[in-house]
C-alpha cells in the first residue's frame, strides 16, 4: 500500500514530470498561473481537464490514514516525509492554486476587500467572555463579542458579561435577533451598496479546487472511521484522525474568515448536488473512490440508518448500487429489516441495567416516525460533512467551521435544513456518547444559532416538519429508559414512567434536545402550529405522561432505608425542563381571547391523557397508603391552561371542566402531596433518609414552585370550588389522618397516626385549608400584585440582596413572559416595598453586602404569613419572619407582646371561583371548628397555639366571605343534601356561630374521665361496619358523609343514594359497633361558637369577664369595623376582632354576645389556675430553680478550684512555707502577677515555672513598602503603565547597605544599619498569659485532636485558649517588677559625664544579668527556644546580609533589627506620628517589654569588639593619627554614616536589664548630638555652593558666643568647613546642579529640615521609653511634636520657655566639646570622600521621611482591570493564564495555580507571596473579582472590594453586572494588611500546599 501511496504522490500523469524538491515552490506558482490562464480562455475544457488531473494527483486520499496515524509505516506512507508531509504538500498546492500563481497572503487581502460585512458572526468556544444586553435583545439568547459590545452604545441598558458555557456567536448586525440600535459602529452601516462586484477571475480557481478539496476531506473522514468495537468506541482513534485533519479543517476555517465573497463560493461548493453526485457516487473506475463509498454505506448501516436507494430496504434493485449493496449485506448480516433497526443501538445500552423491571414499550406511531428515525439520504457535501461531524461527536474545529459560514444567508437555510434532517441521528449519537457533556454543549452551540431566529425556525417548521421531528425524537429518546410504574396498583399497572436512575436523566443528557424545543416554541408562529396540530398534541401528552408519577416514594415503616437514592433531583430537573418549560413556552402564546381554541385543544388532550393514566394505574377512589410522587405534570398542564383560560382568554371555566367524578379523581393526588408534605415535616418519613426532606424542599423552592406547588394548589382550589364542600373538607381531614382527633372527648384512639405526630398533622391540615382558602395567585391577582406579594414574603423572612431577590422570586420560567429579571416592574415594585441598606463595615467584622429591607408600612399592612408559609423552604424562615414582625411592632410601639400572625385582607376572587368560599360555609367545617375551640378551651392534649391561630383564621375568613345579606330564618333545604342538621340548622357561618349545642354523644375509651358509670360497650353493628376503627360519632359523620357523597356522585342513577345512613335526630349518632374497649358517653356542652370565643378571651387574658363589647360605648364601631387598633396583636386581639365582625354582620349575633357577657361566667376548666397563668407560673418557677442550681454549681466549682490550687502550689513551690518576711524588705517593689488562662492560677513568673505571653510571630514586609510619596501607586491597566519598586523603603535601605559593604569593613557595616524592612519579624500578642508547661500540655492535646484544622500544630500554631486568637509561640515573661513602679526610674542627680562612664562599664561587663546564662534554668531554655522561633519565622535571605555567611554579626544585626521592626510598625499603626499620644493603642496588648528582655539576653552573648564600641567614638576624643587605619584594606564605617536609631537599640540592648531611666536618657542625649550633626551635614550637601559659603562665614562670626554649641548656624558653618577639607563639595558637576533645589534656604526652612531629619529618631525613642518605663505619651499638635517629644525624653531642659520660636539646637547637650568631636567625626569620612566623593555624598543624605505604606490604588470600574488582565500573557510562561491574579502590593501579574510557572513545587502565587511580602500575599483574582490572602502555609478568600450598583459582591463574575470599587472595603483590607491582623479577623483558613 505504501508503494501505491508513493506512486500517487509521484506523477502518474506523464504531463507533469517529477521535479527536484527545491524547484517545487516556484514550479507550483508557475503551474498555478499557467492553469489560471488556461481556464480564463473562453474554451477552457483543456484547462479544466488538466486541473482535474493535477488535483486527482495532489489530493488523492489513497494513502491509508490509519497507517499514517499508527506511525508504524509512517515514513513509507508519507513517501519518506513523515505522516504529515503529504498533507502539507497538498495544502501548499491548494493555496497556490487558489491564488492562481500570486502570493497567498495578497490573495487573502484581495478577497477581504470584497467583504460586505453586515454581520459580525464571530464564533467563540467555551469560556469566552461575551456580553448580553436584554434591552437590545429580541431573542433571549442574543450575545455580543466584547469588541462589538464596547463599540456599541449600551449606557443605562440592562446588560451583563458572561462566560460562555457552550460557545456561541456574535449577533451584532443581525436584526432578527437584536434591535438595530444596539449594533456597533462597524455593523451599523448596511454596506452592501458601496462594495464593488467581485471580479470573476479572482475566485475562479476556488470554484474548481474547493470541491476536490472538500471531497478529499470527506474521504479521509470515511477512511478514518472504524465502527467502535463491542467494548465501547475507541475515542483515541477518532481523536487521532481528527488531529491529522487539523490543518485541513483549519484551512477551511481560514477561508471562511476571508469574508462574504469567499463564503458564497464555499456555499456553492457545499450545497451543489451535481458536484457531490459526480465525485462520491462510487461509480466510475477509480477503485479508491469505490472503496470509500462502501465505507460510507457501512457507516450508515451501523448507525442504524438506511440509505434510501439500498435494495435491502426497499427491495428495488437499482443497477448502479448493485456492487456495493452486496458487500454491505455481508457486513450487516442479521440486522434485518427496518422495523428493528433501532433496537441494535438501544439494547446494548439498556440490557445491562435493571433487567428485571424493564418493560420496553414500542410506540404505536406510523411509518412517518420510523422514517424520521431511520432514513438519511445525503445529496450534498454539506449533508455528508454534517453526518461525519456527528459521527465524530462534534469536533470543535468542525463546529467552528460550520458556524463561521452562517453569515451567508443561503448557507444558513441549507445548513438548518440539513441539521434538522440529521436530528434523530444526533440524538442517537448523543445517547451513546461517553462525553455527553461536551457533545451537548457543542450541539447547543450550533442549534441556538439556528433556532433563535424566528423567520428561519418558521421556514424549517413548514418545509421540514421540524416539530414532528423534535417531538418524535424526544419520545424515542425517553423510550429507552422506561420502567413500569408502581403507583397505586403495583401488580396490574399498565403505566410506564421514566427511570430517574438512568444515565440519560441523571446526567441531563436530554437537555440539548429539550432546550432546542423550548427555543423554537418561543416563536409565536411555531408555537401556533404546534397548538393547532392535534396529532402533535396527542404525541406530546403521551411524552408528558412518561413523567407522570415518576420517582415514587414509599414510606419506610420499619427499617431505615439502606441506600438513599439521590435520583430525586434528576426527576425534578426533568419535569422542570422537559415538561414545565415547554408548557410555559406554549402558555406565553395563549394571552388573548383569539387563542381560546388552543387552550381547548390542550385541555382536551390533557384530560384524555389523565383519564388514560387513571385507567392505567387502576385508580378508583382511594389513593394507596404510604406512597407519594411529587411529579404530576399532566395535572399541572391542565391547571395552568385552565388558569390562563380564565385569566387571559375570558373562557368560561365550566366549559373546560370535566364531570364531578373526574374532579374527585383529579384532586386526590395533589392533595396526597400536600398531606405528605405535612407528614415529612412531622418526621413521619424519617426512615426514608434525608433525600425525602430534599424533595419536600425542592417542591416549594423558588425555581420549581410555580411549576409545582402553585398549579397543584390552584387545581385543588378549582376542585374545591366545584365539588361538594362537606365532601372536600372531610377528604382533607381524612388525608391528613387526623379524623380521630376531632372528638369532643378528652381521650381517643387514632389507628392511622402515632400520638406524637397528631399535633403537627392537625396543624398541617388547618394550615393547608388556610392556604387553600386565602391564596389568590391564580384566582384574580394581577401580575404586578403577584410580584409584589412574592417580594414582600421574601423580604419579610430576611433582608435580601438584590441578586438573591431576583433568584428567589419565581419568575415565569419562559424568558419571553415579560417579567424578565431586571425589568422595569421588578425595580419599581422593589423600590415601593423596600429600603436599601448600604453595606456597612464593622472594623474586624464580617463584610456586609447591600441589603433590601421591608419598609415600615409593608410590615404594617402587607406582611402576609400565608404567603410566607407557602414560600419557605426551611421552617425556620417562618419563625424568622415572625421574629422580625414582632421586633417591628415593638419598635414602632404598635404592640409590646408576642403577636400572632396578622390577618390580611385578600384580593377579591375572580367570579369563576366564587364556589371556593362554600368551603367556609359548610357544616362539616363548622363542626370541626366548634370541636377544636371546645378542646382548646378544655385543655385537651395535642393542641397548640398554632392550631388555635388557624381555627380563628378560618372563622375570620368565613366572616369576611359570608353571603351578602343574611336572612335570619334560612329556608331549610330538603332532600338528601341536609347532613349534620342536628348540629347546625343552616350552612352560613354567621348564623351558625350563635347556635347553641347542648349534648353530644361521644365514643370514648373506658378509662376516660367522661365515663361516669360502667355502661356496657355498645355492640350494635351498622352497615358502616367496615369503618370500625374510629371512635367518635361525629367523626363518623365526617367519613360517612364523604363516602356517601362519593357514592351519590358515582351512582347518580341508582336509588341507593338516598338510603345511605343519615344522622338521626338525636344530638349525635351513636357509633356503630367498634372495638370493645370503647364506650359511649354523653357530654353536656351547652355552648355556641360565640360563647366559646368569649370564654377563650377570658382564658387567654387570664381574667374573668375580660371581654366587654366595644360597641356598647361607641356604636360607630359596627359600621366601620376596620380599626387599626385590631390589626396587630395576639390571640386576644384576634378574638375581639372576630366578635366585632360577627356582631357587625348580624343583629342577632350582637344581641347574643351581649347576653353572654351579662351572665357572670364561672371559670370553664375545673382547674384552679388558667393554663396561660399556669404557663407563666411554671416558667418563673423553672427559672428560679435554674438559678439556684447554677449558684450551687458555681460555689462547688470555686471550692474545688481552691483545693486544687492549694495542692498544686504545694507541689510546685516548697519555699512557700518560709514566712513572708522577704517581701516586706522592699515594700515599694511589687512583683508582676500573671494569670494562666489554662490552669486559672495567678502568680509571678519564676525561673523554674516561667509564664509566657501568647504571641504570633510573623514575617512582614509592610515597612519595606513605605515610600516618600503620600499618593499610593496606581495598578497598571495599560501596557505603558509599569510599577518600578526602587523608590520603596526596602530598596533604598538595600542600596545603602550594599554601598557600605563595598567600601567598609563587613562587621562594622552590619552595625551601621538596620535590616527587617523586608521580612522583618513582627511580634503581636492578644495579651493573655499562660504557664509554659501548661502550654506544652495544651499543644500535646491539640496534636492528638486532629479536628482543629486550619492551623498546623506541628509548626507550633495554636489558638489562644481564652480568646481563640491565632498564635504560634510563647514569649517568656521576665521575672521581676511591674513596669509601673520601677525603683530604677527615680531620677538621679549625677552629671552626664558620670552616667556616660557607668554606661560604658555596664556594657563592658558580660553576664551582668540576674540570671546567669550558664545555669540552665527553665526560663533561659524558653528564651532560647523563642529566639529560635523568631529566627525561623523569616526566611534565611532576610537575615543573612554579611559577606561571610553565619557570622555572629549577622545574628547581632538581626536581633536589634527585630526590635526596630516592631517599634517602626507600632509607629505606623499610630498613623506615622505620636501626636495622638496617650497610652499605647494596643494598651495591654504590647509585648515589646518582654521582647526586649529576650533580645537583650541574647545580644549580650555577643560582645562587641571593645576597641570598636561606637559608644567611645561618641563620647571620647581620641588623638588623631592621620595615618591610622589605612593599612587595613577596609576601614570601619565612619560614625556619621551610622544609622542613629540602630545605634540606640544596640546601646540599650547591650545594657543589663532592667535598664535605669537616667542611663537611658544619657544614651539618648549622646546620640542626639550625633543625629544633629548628621542633619547638618546632610543639609550642607543639599544646598548650593553660594548658600554654603554664605553660611560658612555667617556661622564663623558667632563661634565665640557663649552658647555657640547650641546654635545651629555656628555648628553648620563648622561642619561645612570641616567637610570642606575632604574634597566632598569639590565635584559640583553640572549634573549636581540639576538635583539641587533652586529655592533659597531661609532660617525657617532650615530649622524645619533639621527637625524633620531628627523626628523619626525621637518618635522611636519615645515609644521605646514608653514601653520600657511605662510612661504615657503626651498628645500634641503636629507643629509642636518635636518639642513635646524632646522634653518628654529629657533632651530639653525643664526650665525652657516656649515663648520664642522653638529651635531644635537647644536640645543639644554635648558630652565633650562640640567642635572637637565634630572635627573627629568629619575626619573619619575625609579620607573616604577624597576618593569617592559621589558615594560619600549619597551616604550622608539619609532619607528618613517615609510616608505610610499603601496598597495600590485601584480603578473605579472593575471592567478596566478585567479587560486588560484577563487576556494578558504571563511574563514567565508567555501564555494567557487560566486563573490570572495580580498582587495588590506591588502590581505583579501571576498565574494562580498555574503549573506552567511552578518552581521547586511552589506555584507562582505562593512564591510571590514569599518574595514580595515575606509570606503574606494579597492577590486580586481577575476572573473572580475576589481577593485572596496567602499567609505562610495557609490561605483564605477575603471577599471582594468591588461591588455592583446594589452593593453586592459578584464572586466569579457569575452575574456579570458592572462592578465599582468600594473604598471603605479597600480601606479595611489595607488596614488589616498594615496591622497584620489577617489571621485574627478572617476565620476561614485552609492549607494551600503551595498549590496556589
What does this structure look like?
This protein is an alpha+beta fold and about 1900 residues long. The chain is about 50% helix and about 5% strand. It is built from 74 helices and 28 strands. A six-stranded antiparallel sheet has the order 22-21-23-24-25-28. It has a three-stranded antiparallel sheet with strand order 3-2-4. A three-stranded antiparallel sheet has the order 17-16-20. Strand 14 (about 1235) and strand 15 form a beta hairpin. The chain is flat. The N terminus is likely disordered.
In short:
The chain is α+β, with helices and mostly antiparallel strands.
Topology:
Blueprint lengths: L1 H8 L14 H17 L4 H14 L6 H6 L3 H4 L7 H15 L4 H9 L10 E2 L4 E5 L10 E2 H6 L7 E5 L4 E2 L15 H4 L15 H21 L10 H22 L3 H12 L1 H8 L6 H16 L8 H4 L7 H11 L10 H8 L16 H8 L6 H11 L4 H9 L4 H13 L1 H10 L3 H16 L2 H11 L1 H14 L2 E3 L11 E3 L4 H4 L4 H11 L2 H9 L1 H12 L7 E2 L13 H20 L8 H21 L10 E2 L4 H15 L12 H22 L8 H11 L8 H14 L2 H11 L19 H20 L8 H15 L4 H7 L15 H10 E4 L13 E4 L1 H7 L2 H7 L3 H17 L31 H15 L7 H16 L28 H4 L4 E9 L27 H18 L27 E10 L1 H13 L14 H4 L11 H15 L1 H12 L12 H42 L8 H5 L8 E2 L6 E2 L7 E10 L28 H15 L2 H7 L7 E12 H13 L13 E2 L6 E2 L1 E4 L19 H13 L13 H16 L14 H22 L18 H12 ...
Antiparallel strand pairs: 1-5, 2-3, 2-4, 6-7, 8-9, 10-11, 12-13, 14-15, 16-17, 16-20, 18-19, 21-22, 21-23, 23-24, 24-25, 25-28, 26-27
